[in-house]
Write a structure and sequence with these properties.
The protein is of the alpha+beta class. It has five helices and 13 strands. The strands form four sheets. The protein has a six-stranded mixed beta sheet with strand order 3-6-8-9-10-11, sandwiched between helices.
Length: 207
């Protein structure tokens, strides 16, 4: 079978080359959409974006910061910092510094790094594992299940102790690698294995 092209009798044949040229120009100006870029964890850790975490190949911005969240974060960082100095244990207390877990690139709200793990240069962009002591503060947007899963992720990546703070409920959960311990508003929460001897009233921390 032979294909036959039929043109309208009134078609102006002189316009066809011009129309063809225009269609080629349009095609050049509207290329096919470029494929999505794959973001590799190693590249992100070398030059991380501000306030971003690397989760399952995607950059996720840390959002949901409220007054209570910020207050709890700054208080805990100050309390841990003052105690590591007064007790002579040394090390450093950090906020939202990037660390690499077995799965993701995370920015814990508060973290404590022991003196023996501090790099000789005294500076780093991302820590190669979870920090020894980590705290995450729940915001209204956070899922409790996701927060506990993140805590477990830290523990499986070199962290020795995780604190989960819930300012709205005035509750703190602590896990030193075995089980979660609950501290209510009328109790005193204390470190289990890192920054030995630290304690603070939950009501004072989550006032």
């Amino acid at each position: 079978m032979t294909d036959t092209t039929i043109s309208p009798q009134n078609a102006d044949q002189k316009l066809e080359p011009e129309l063809l040229q225009k269609s080629e120009i349009i095609a050049e100006n509207q290329p096919e959409s470029a494929p999505e870029k794959v973001i590799f964890l190693e590249k992100f850790l070398v030059k991380p974006a501000d306030r971003m975490e690397w989760v399952d190949g995607n950059l996720v911005e840390k959002t949901g910061m409220t007054f209570k969240h910020s207050l709890a974060q700054s208080k805990l960082a100050r309390f841990w910092g003052n105690y590591k100095d007064s007790s002579g244990q040394g090390g450093e207390v950090l906020t939202e510094i990037l660390c690499r877990t077995n799965k993701q690139g995370r920015r814990p709200d508060v973290a404590y790094i022991t003196p023996d793990l501090l790099p000789p240069s005294g500076n780093f962009t991302a820590f190669s594992q979870s920090f020894p002591l980590i705290a995450e503060v729940a915001s209204p947007e956070d899922s409790g299940e996701d927060l506990f899963a993140k805590g477990q992720e830290y523990l499986e990546s070199g962290c020795l102790e995780v604190w989960l703070l819930f300012p709205e409920a005035r509750l703190i959960f602590v896990n030193a690698g075995q089980r979660w311990r609950l501290f209510n508003a009328d109790e005193v929460v204390n470190t289990q294995s890192v920054l030995a001897g630290f304690s603070v009233a939950v009501s004072e921390l989550l006032a």
